[in-house]
Write a structure and sequence with these properties.
alpha/beta, globular, 7-stranded mixed sheet, Amidohydrolase, TIM Barrel, Metal_Hydrolase, Urease, subunit C, domain 1, binds zinc ion, 22% strand
């Protein structure tokens, strides 16, 4: 349905950079236009901050209630592993139901025979897609692609079982590239980060936490991979040492110019559904300031409008207060975010 455009102004906006009072065009999308001029006198004003939609780049929708994500400030998710046939329904569900987030899925978790998570309690048996050799690797990636997956989840966890040999690992990465799919690996165990890099994996599903990586390896990882943070999964009674290793690795990865994505492994343990203030505090400990936190949260998705070719987004982030002067308050401020659509933003003006 075509919507006639409505306009509002907001006090602050962020779409890759900050702007002060801005005009927002609302159709079936939200589009940031720029500073108001006299023609905009009298249009409704919202005191608060409009931002690009926030993404959690590592969730398991099968373990949470997706309807809680929007009120919690998360507009988009990457699901990193579940029963492939069930997960294949989620992207369309996200398109049709405005209460759902936008969803990309990996489908199953590609693992070697007996490898993680085939014996783990959290995942249904059908979530583990066993890949025994390079030919099976190509078939498994094709199957996920045909089910509508945008991502390929690989497990490389030598702490709890066997891991892929280099040839099979490489075959998965090559097959994913042929289908323009992003490879995301669960990398755990000493030496596995180096192997993932050598194989050409795009993303790490977790900040490496098994060992303090050396500077030369960090430099190469920063040039070639993105890391999904998931620092808070180590924060609850699992001992501080692993957490400290992860924060130290991420701090050096960031300093080396590495691309950091906000992600929580939502569904894994007792984590808040929505923007996780503790995850953001941990990212601050690794050195990220407010703008870097925002870049990690939006995962490259702009709000549209200024400098973005004029295209808007179906969702945006709304925070009813101005950005804090004190950087230490940024995590708590960001955790008050809610997802807004054009309709729910208009409702706030009445
Ligand atoms: Zn996970």
């Amino acid at each position: 349905m075509t919507q006639e455009a409505r306009f509002v102004t907001v006090d602050h906006a962020w779409s890759g950079a900050w702007s002060r009072r801005s005009v927002v065009r609302l159709t079936d999308e939200i589009e940031l236009l720029g500073p108001p001029h006299t023609a905009h006198d009298g249009i409704p004003h919202l005191p608060g901050t409009l931002l690009s939609p926030f993404t959690d780049s590592h969730v398991h929708l099968g373990l949470i209630d997706p309807l809680l994500l929007g009120p919690g400030g998360i507009a988009r998710v990457d699901d990193l592993g579940w029963d492939p046939d069930t997960a294949s329904l989620w992207p369309e569900h996200g398109r049709l139901d405005p209460r759902w987030p936008e969803v990309r899925v990996a489908g199953g978790l590609l693992c070697p025979p007996g490898g993680y998570p085939s014996r783990s309690a959290w995942a249904p048996d059908t979530a583990s897609v066993v890949v025994a050799n390079p030919a099976a690797a190509r078939r498994a990636v094709e199957r996920m692609h045909d089910l509508g997956a945008a991502l390929v989840k690989i497990t490389l966890n030598s702490d709890v079982g066997p891991v892929f040999d280099d040839t099979t690992l490489r075959a998965i990465v090559d097959a994913a590239a042929e289908h323009v799919m992003t490879t995301t690996a669960h990398v755990q165990g000493v030496g596995q980060a180096r192997r993932a890099l050598a194989a050409g994996v795009d993303r790490f599903a977790h900040t490496p936490f098994s060992e303090l990586l050396d500077d030369e390896l960090i430099e190469r990882l920063a040039a070639r991979t993105s890391w999904i943070s998931t620092l808070d999964i180590h924060g609850h009674g699992r001992g501080g040492a692993v957490h400290d290793v992860a924060v130290a690795n991420l701090a050096r990865f960031r300093t080396a110019g590495g691309h950091v994505l906000y992600g929580t492994d939502l569904g894994n343990g007792d984590l808040p559904v929505g923007v996780n203030e503790r995850e953001l505090r941990d990212l601050q400990r690794a050195g990220l300031g407010l703008d870097e936190l925002l870049h990690a949260l939006v995962a490259g998705v702009p709000l549209g409008g200024v400098g973005e070719g004029g295209r808007g987004t179906a969702h945006a982030t709304w925070i009813p207060t101005p950005p804090p002067d004190d950087p230490a308050e940024a995590p708590a401020w960001l955790a008050t975010a809610v997802v807004t659509t054009p309709d729910t933003l208009l409702e706030k003006t009445t």
